[in-house]
Amino acid sequence: MNLFNRSILPFLILATFFGLSLVGCLDAPNDPGALKPVESIRILVKQKESPYSAQLKVHPSDSATLHAEVTPEKYQDDLKFEWFYANEKKDSLLTRGASYTFYPNDDVLPNKLTAIDGEGNRQTQEFNIIVNTPPVLSDSTVPASGDTLYGTSTSAFLFSWYSIDIDLLGNDSLIHTLDIDGKEFEVGSLLQVKQSGLTEGEHKFRIIVRDIYGDADTLSYKKFYVIDTLEAK
C-alpha cells in the first residue's frame, strides 16, 4: 500500500466521524418546551358582557370565561389547550379548548394551562384567579344631605360613614377617601374624621372606598351648609 495513503487514512476516518456528528447536531430536535414560532400565550378572563381582561379577577356571583390568546394570532388554531386544577397531589384536567367557562363559587378553580403544538411540544403556565366582592358604602353619613353645621372656620366638624366588604375575613382591606368640595383626603381604614377650615356657606362631600384589588364604591355628593356663629353675633 502507498505510504501516503496509509498516512492519511486515520484523518479520513476522523473527518468522516466529525462530519456525521455535525449532521446529527443539525438534525437535533428543538427544545420540547418551546412552541415555535409562537411568541407568547396570554390568559384572559371576562364576565357577562364585559371585555376580556388580563387581570384575572372575577365577582363570585356570575360565571366567568377564561380564554387563551396566542401571539401571533395566526397560530391560534394550531395549538391545543388543556385547563387544569393543580394542587400538591395531582393535576386534574377540567376541560380542553381555547376557552373555559367556570363558576367562581366552585371549590375547584382552574390554575394551570397547558398548550400543545402539532409535534407534541408543551408549554405550561400557572395562574391564580382572584374571586373578589366589591366594597359597599352605606348611604347613611354624618353630616346627612342638607344638614346645617354651626361653628367657625376653626371648628372641627365630624364626618362619619360606614362601609362593608365580605372579603375582609380574607386578605382584603379597605382604603377610604373623603372628598370635600373636590379636595380629596386619604384617610385609610378610618370611618370617621374631623375637619376644620370650612367657611360659611354651601359645601359638598362624598366618600370613596376601594379594596386592594381596585374595586370601589362611591357615594354621590351630599350638600351641607355651614353657618358661622361668630358672624351671626
Question: Can you tell me about this structure?
Answer:
The structure is a single chain. The protein is mostly beta strands and 233 residues long. It folds into 2 domains: 40-131, Immunoglobulin-like; 136-232, Immunoglobulin-like, CATH 2.60.40. The chain has helices at residues 3-26, 229-232, and strands at residues 40-47, 57-58, 64-71, 80-86, 91-96, 99-102, 112-116, 122-126, 130-131, 136-137, 148-151, 157-160, 163-164, 174-180, 183-188, 192-195, 201-211, 216-218, 222-228. The strands form 6 sheets. Strands 11, 14, 15, 17, 18 and 19 form a 6-stranded mixed β-sheet that branches. Residues 1-32 have low confidence and may be disordered.
CATH class placement of the largest domain: Mainly Beta
The pLDDT mean sits at 85
- Count of individual beta strands: 19
Going by CATH, the architecture of the largest domain would be Sandwich
- Please give the radius of gyration in angstroms: 33 Å
What is the name of the CATH topology of the largest domain?
Immunoglobulin-like
Q: How far apart, in Å, are the first and last alpha carbons?
A: 132 Å
Low-confidence stretches: 1-32
The CATH superfamily name of the largest domain is Immunoglobulins
What is the ordering of alpha helices and beta strands? HEEEEEEEEEEEEEEEEEEEH
Give the percentage of residues in beta strands: 35-45%
Outline the biggest β-sheet. Answer: 6 strands, mixed
The domain count comes to 2
Helical coverage, percent range = 10-25%
